[in-house]
Structure formats: C-alpha cells, structure tokens
Amino acid sequence: MMKDPVTRKLENVMGPVEGLRLVQSVCRQAGISSLEDPQQRLQFGCVLMQRGGLLEAIGRSIKIQAILHGATDN
C-alpha cells in the first residue's frame, strides 16, 4: 500500500516513527480520519501551520500542494 504524500513528506523530515506520530496527532486535531483527497490535505496543512517554525513551513507546502491538486481554501 502506498503512503499518502503528506505522510511520506513528514517521515522524510522527521523519521518514520515521529513523522507518523505527528500525522496522527494533526489528523486528530483537524478532525479528519485520512489524507486521501486534496481537501483533507489542505485541512491538515492549515492545522500543521499553527504549530509554528519548521512545521509551519511544511504545513504551507502541504497546503499549496493541496490547492494545486484541487482543494479550495475558503
């Protein structure tokens, strides 16, 4: 099974254990159960941006990618 691009990106930056832990934590905070579509990834990116620092930069990247793939930022 292929991992979604968000999980892959965070695992590359933070390592597989911490990356997955962060994905699960942000998904809970965002109220989403998966990262299957661009709109969910946009929500994830926006929540991640609230954490500041490097995570904010990564969140912006995820948000922009989601918008490029069809998500809408209301």
Describe this structure in words.
- This protein is an all-alpha fold.
- It has a domain of 39 residues.
- Helix content is 72%, strand content 0%.
- The chain contains 4 helices and no strands.
- The longest helix has 16 residues.
What is the number of helical segments per DSSP (H or I, 4+ residues)? Answer: 4
Uncertain segments: none
How much of the sequence is in beta strands?
under 5%
Alpha carbon gap, first and last residue: 32 Å
Average pLDDT rating: 94
**Could you say which structural class the secondary elements and strand pairing correspond to?**
mainly alpha
Q: What series of H and E elements makes up the topology?
A: HHHH
User: From the alpha-carbon coordinates, what is the Rg to the nearest angstrom?
Assistant: 11 Å
State the helical fraction. Answer: over 70%
Largest sheet report: none
Q: How many β-strands, per DSSP?
A: 0
- Which descriptor suits the 3D outline? globular
What's the arrangement of secondary structure elements?
Layout: H1 5-14, H2 16-30, H3 38-49, H4 53-68
Helix pairs in contact: 1-2, 2-3, 3-4
Q: Can I get a quick summary?
A:
This protein is an all-alpha fold and 74 residues long. The protein is 72% helix and 0% strand.
Defining key terms:
74 residues, mainly alpha, 4 helices, globular
